Amino acid sequence: MPKTVLDPAQLGLTELDHDLNHHTELPRTAISDFLENIIDKIGYVCSWLWLVAVGVIICTVAARYVFGLGTVMLEEIQWHLVGAAWLVGLSYTIVHDDHVRVDIIHENLSIRSQAKVELFGILLLLLPFLLISLWEMVPYAMSSLSQNETSQSPNGLPFRWILKSVLPFSMVLLIMAASARLIRVSVLLFSKKPNKNNNVNKSI
């Protein structure tokens, strides 16, 4: 069968948009949309942490170099905010397929071949790694909570367990994102009636 090529203009996309986003053209399902919507909302809220972090960094620099004041608490707030925003943001980038890839080979494959690579990558590499990480991080965070862990610095922040709790939380979000991606590539590869318009497949 001849391969159908969609005209970017018909989709309302510029040529650059089409080149940047062609690898995200996967079927959508009710379950994948549900998981991705949750991650989208959490990611949007957490994106504001970057703005707060920038504000704290500016205050820290001004306090140190303008007023000659240095505070351990402000410095720790910086990396707490950046760490939390980065960890939560990982799942958001997977949902939108904006994470860093080494696409020397993958980028030049057909959509179906890319989906096969992702299917095996998610099943054999990503999900096992995330599940093992979650298994290790839950007791790590619980131990910090039970000890009411604080900063080792006398002037540092209390409640270090809050940041450590972000680790298993981010793993849960990543598992959700990987599962949503897995569903979408599975529908593309195994659906008997492929949905050319990428509408939601209510049977999944």
Can you walk through the features of this model?
The protein is mostly helical. It has one domain (about 25-100, about 110-195). It has five helices and two strands. It has helices spanning about 15-20, 30-65, 70-95, 110-145, 160-190, and strands at about 30, 200. A two-stranded parallel ribbon has the order 1-2. The longest helix is centred in the N-terminal third of the chain and has 36 residues, at about 30-65. It is elongated. The two termini are about 25 Å apart.
The number of helical segments is 5
Strand order of the largest sheet: 1-2
Instruction: From the alpha carbons, calculate the radius of gyration and give it in angstroms.
Output: 21 Å
Q: What is the distance, rounded to the nearest whole angstrom, between the alpha carbons of the first and last residues?
A: 27 Å
Count of DSSP strands: 2
Helix content: 55-70%
Largest sheet: 2 strands, parallel
Domain module count: 1
Order of helices and strands: HEHHHHE
Give the tags:
204 residues; elongated; mainly alpha; two-stranded parallel ribbon; disordered C terminus
Give the gist of this structure.
By secondary structure, this protein is mainly alpha-helical.
In terms of topology, how is this protein built?
Layout: H1 15-21, E1 28-29, H2 30-65, H3 72-95, H4 111-146, H5 160-190, E2 200-201
